[in-house]
């Protein structure tokens, strides 16, 4: 029917759209921390307290607040995050539109990437935290909570896996790094920079990432295989490496210098370790891929890969380590581990 023939009186009343359902899960962190009698701040607040303290948040979404953990984020484990992922998956199955994870900033770059590997849904999972506690002047928690919720409910955020929002910037889980101990601008995205920002109450994206091209790596029951992380320093002789198998490690990530290099005297130990367990080669630099075919001296990436090391691609050591834990738990072969790492570029 054309507009000209539609009597104004019969136009259906516009029904207000149902607000999106957002699950907010708090795990602890500075954003939840208040002063303790013993000195310093510690996690005391839960998700409901945080949500109630942000004016305007109730208009963004219909929020259900839960508080599964109250921890400093350096005490969170991959098993904790697998439980959080299971709760998010159950909430999505029940009809929630997005999830907001509230936690400490110290390990956000790890937990966000773990959630990326463990949730596997096109609905957004957004992780936020705060650099200043709620009792500090200029506390950034409320602004980060509001910005995170705005991103979580935005249509453009769908299909990009897990995102991290702090300081009004939107980061992809695979690229985000904590680069400062104190500033509210502590988070950076290696390689491509942030995906977007929040301004005037709206999420705006400049670029997108594809969701992780690896199967969802649900760990199931039982212990997670321990994976060692060894960072190389100048003059290191690698004497730690032969001890790893005896300590019960099932895999190792070596965070080499530059494009993935270790001192020449260590190369043999890397090869011996790679004969015992999967060894992933990452870089201690902030960005760029581990090389595969450029340098040919002892301890170079060509040498280490020939000795059995698996290049981490664009994934930094912390994220490659989580992928290796979950891949080992899933029983991946060396080839499938290499392919899963390569899927991130
Ligand atoms: N400094 C941390 C934070 O920003 C403490 C933690 O990660 O739990 O939340």
The strand line-up of the biggest sheet is: 4-1-5-6-7-8-11-12
Mean pLDDT: 94
Task: Please work out how many helical segments DSSP would assign.
Answer: 9
CATH superfamily of the largest domain: L-asparaginase, N-terminal domain
What's the β-strand tally? 16
Strand content: 15-25%
Categorize the overall geometry.
elongated
Helicity level, as a percent range? 25-40%
CATH topology of the largest domain: Rossmann fold
Which ligands occur here?
aspartic acid
Describe the structure.
It is a single chain. It contains nine helices and 16 strands. The chain has 345 residues and is α/β, with parallel strands linked by helices. It folds into two domains: 21-205, 3-Layer(aba) Sandwich (Rossmann fold), CATH 3.40.50.1170; 227-342, Rossmann fold (3-Layer(aba) Sandwich). It has an eight-stranded mixed β-sheet with strand order 4-1-5-6-7-8-11-12, with helices on both faces. It has a four-stranded parallel β-sheet with strand order 13-14-15-16, sandwiched between helices. A two-stranded antiparallel ribbon has the order 2-3. Helix 3 (78-94) crosses helix 4 (108-118) and helix 8 crosses helix 9. The longest helix is centred in the N-terminal third of the chain and has 17 residues, at 78-94. The protein is elongated. Bound molecules: aspartic acid. Aspartic acid binds next to loops. Aspartic acid is lined by residues 28-30, 72-73, 104-106, 129, 131. Pfam families: Asparaginase (PF00710), Asparaginase_C (PF17763).
């Amino acid at each position: 029917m054309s507009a000209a023939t539609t009597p104004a009186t019969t136009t259906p009343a516009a029904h207000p759209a149902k607000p999106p359902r957002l699950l907010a899960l708090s795990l602890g962190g500075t954003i939840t921390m208040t002063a303790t009698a013993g000195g310093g701040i510690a996690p005391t607040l839960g998700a409901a307290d945080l949500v109630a303290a942000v004016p305007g948040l109730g208009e963004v979404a219909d929020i259900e607040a839960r508080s599964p953990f109250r921890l400093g984020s350096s005490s969170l484990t991959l098993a904790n995050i697998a439980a959080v992922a299971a709760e998010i998956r159950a909430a999505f199955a029940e009809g929630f539109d997005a999830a907001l994870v509230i936690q400490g900033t110290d390990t956000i770059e790890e937990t966000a990437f773990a959630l990326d590997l463990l949730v596997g849904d096109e609905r957004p999972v957004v992780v936020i935290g705060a650099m200043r506690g709620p009792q500090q002047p200029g506390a950034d928690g409320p602004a980060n909570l509001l910005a995170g919720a705005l991103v979580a409910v935005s249509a453009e955020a769908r299909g990009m896996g897990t995102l991290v929002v702090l300081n009004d910037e939107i980061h992809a889980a695979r690229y985000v790094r904590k680069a400062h101990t104190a500033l509210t601008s502590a988070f950076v995205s290696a390689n491509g920079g942030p995906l977007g920002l929040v301004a005037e109450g709206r999420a705006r994206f400049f670029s997108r990432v594809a969701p992780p091209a690896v199967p969802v790596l649900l760990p199931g029951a039982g212990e997670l295989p321990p994976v060692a992380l060894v960072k190389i320093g100048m003059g290191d002789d690698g004497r730690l490496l032969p001890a790893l198998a005896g300590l019960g490690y099932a895999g190792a990530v070596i965070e080499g210098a530059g494009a993935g290099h270790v001192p020449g005297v260590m190369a043999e130990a890397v090869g011996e370790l790679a004969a015992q367990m999967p060894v992933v080669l990452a870089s201690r630099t902030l960005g760029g891929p581990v090389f595969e075919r450029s340098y040919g001296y002892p301890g170079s990436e060509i040498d280490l890969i020939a000795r059995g090391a698996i290049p981490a691609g664009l994934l930094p050591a912390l994220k490659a380590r989580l992928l290796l834990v979950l891949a080992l738990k899933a029983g991946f072969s060396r080839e499938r581990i290499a392919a899963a790492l390569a899927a991130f570029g």
